[in-house]
Amino acid sequence: MTIHRRQFLRAAGVGAVAGLAGCSLPGSRGSQSGTVGDGELVLATTTSTFDTGLLGELNPAFEDTYGMTMKTIPKGTGASLRTARDGDADVILVHARNAEDEFMQDGYGVNRRDVMFNDFVVVGPESDPAGIDGMESATEAFRTISQEQATFLSRGDDSGTNKKERIVWDEAGVEPSGQWYRAVGKGMGDTLVQASQSSAYTIADRGTYLSMQDEIDLTIHVQGPLQDGPVILKNPYGVMAVNPGQYEDVNYEGAMAYIGFLTSQRGQSMIADYTANNSQLFFPNAISEEPNLGQYVPQGYSAQQADSLTRADRQYLYWVDEQVPADY
Length: 328
Hints:
The chain is α/β, with parallel strands linked by helices.
């Protein structure tokens, strides 16, 4: 029998939720009377939003505005999506569009919005034993690392970063294995620390790397698209509410308030203004003169596919058809 979110939190307690994340909860203010939903909002999110300190800025402002208490569970994107599928979160903030689309198509997520983006970079020791510095192709860099059998640390945790890493290896035509390739099963911050200690290469989101640049001895060898690098290293973030049709005890009102806050002018300005080591870590993209309707619709969606979809898919797509122009 699945223990849903409210039962889970009452049984485990706040400290246990923090323990699951391996770190303290940002923005928790203790009990207070909430004005949205039940006054308590559980966010499952990727570690990069936590490790960079961004949520330490955003979540207290949200709590103060809405009189709510937030519980944040920072894991990799894959683990965050599984947490939400189990009904143990109200809203998710992650960065793996294909996995997000699957989550929506399976009927677990609703009302997805683009929030922000940055990019991935390939980092390693300044000595650059594989000789990849300045390469314009991430796949060529990965292929060279494997040929030289230079040490590479993978997060190995089904996170958005790990999913992107696998995409690059696949595009490079390499199945990494052997002593040179090590999966650490850690978050981005811990992986960067271990890579620095091991003089190893790894792939990292630029935001976490920049926020930790003074603590590690690693150099960017292959840039992402923010610095004219390959598009394959783009790193967009999206937010979704957990479908209240799946779990009646989720705080859907609170989730929608959080989505509204992140995508509002105030939230987007806070994201744009957040810096570390004098560098902007994330670039907001929820607001534009020409709305990007593709942010609401799974990639590759067409109405003609509806006949082969599950009932949950169809319920979602009926909503889409009402929101999106017929010729989109």
